[in-house]
Design a protein that fits this description.
The structure holds two protein chains of two kinds. By secondary structure, chain A is mainly alpha-helical. In chain A, 74% of the residues lie in helices and 5% in strands. The chains are: A mainly alpha, B mainly alpha.
């Protein structure tokens, strides 16, 4: 069905997929932990677009409530994650994951 | 017609600024590009009749989360060009892996049957704050309260982690 004139659900799925893949590729591509955090935010938002589009398809508000909860979790994650990054920078003087690899294996 | 153009415009803005976020060397430019992406996504929400969600999205993401990112980058003085020590081979591999994932997901979307629900499509005011509040406080009351506990825990954790005299 068409959500907007000439714009179907699959268009929204395509936009969401592309944004999600950009987030995944960014996590693989960059070594800066802050940029990797921002890529996680991008992936969460790609999923949010899908949820809102499905909410419009079904004409129900439940999916938009799920988007609220995703925003809540994202905000909590960013607060704690950036606190951890600040602590790491204070002790190691870098945010590069090339150096911060003590937990690897 | 206008909304169709708005959809394509917002999609291209979102995707290109997301790419700029990945590829810019300066972390501050990455943050600004991601803010542009978030505004484009908020525009998508407006087009999808989720006005309240669009406003909350701008307030929470552009107003709080990205300001927090910017604040941390400024405080750690990371706003200089960093040399990326990652080899070009690894970069090629990461782009290839992303491309493969894109290929798989595009195949999935392409094979999706076109959704044919028309009965409830006329209900376009489900994104208004009144209906959202009714759903949130009737059906999702327990997750709402749990979210507040999660926030409390995150707040305490963030304050505890950033204390200076932490062992």
């Amino acid at each position: 069905m068409e959500l907007l004139p000439n714009v179907t659900m699959n268009h929204y799925l395509l936009v969401s997929v592309i944004l999600f893949v950009i987030g995944v590729a960014g996590i693989l591509f960059r070594r800066n932990a802050i940029i990797m955090f921002m890529c996680v935010e991008l992936m969460l938002n790609a999923v949010n677009i899908t949820l809102v589009a499905f909410s419009k398809v079904w004409g129900q508000s439940d999916a938009q409530v799920f988007v609220f909860f995703i925003m809540v979790v994202a905000a909590a994650e960013v607060a704690v994650g950036l606190a951890i990054l600040m602590m790491l920078y204070r002790n190691m003087h870098t945010t590069s994951t090339d150096v911060l690899d003590k937990l690897k294996w | 017609m206008l909304t169709e153009y708005a959809f394509w415009f917002l999609s291209f803005v979102a995707i290109f600024s997301a790419l700029a976020m990945i590829f810019s060397k300066n972390p501050v430019y990455s943050v600004l590009s991601l803010i542009l992406t978030f505004f484009a996504i908020a525009g998508h929400y407006f087009l999808l009749n989720a006005q309240f969600l669009a406003a909350v999205h701008i307030i929470v993401y552009a107003g709080a989360i990205m300001v927090l990112f910017l604040y941390v980058i400024m405080m750690l003085n990371l706003n200089r060009l960093e040399e990326d020590k990652k080899s070009t081979w690894m970069k090629f591999l990461s782009v290839a892996a992303g491309g493969l994932l894109l290929f798989v997901l595009l195949a999935v979307v392409k094979r999706t049957d076109e959704i044919t629900i028309t009965a409830q499509a006329a209900n376009s005011d489900c994104g208004l704050v009144e209906n959202l509040g009714k759903v949130l406080y009737n059906d999702y009351l327990l997750p709402f309260e749990l979210a507040s506990i999660l926030f409390l825990g995150a707040m305490v954790g963030a304050v505890y982690l950033s204390k200076k005299e932490l062992a």
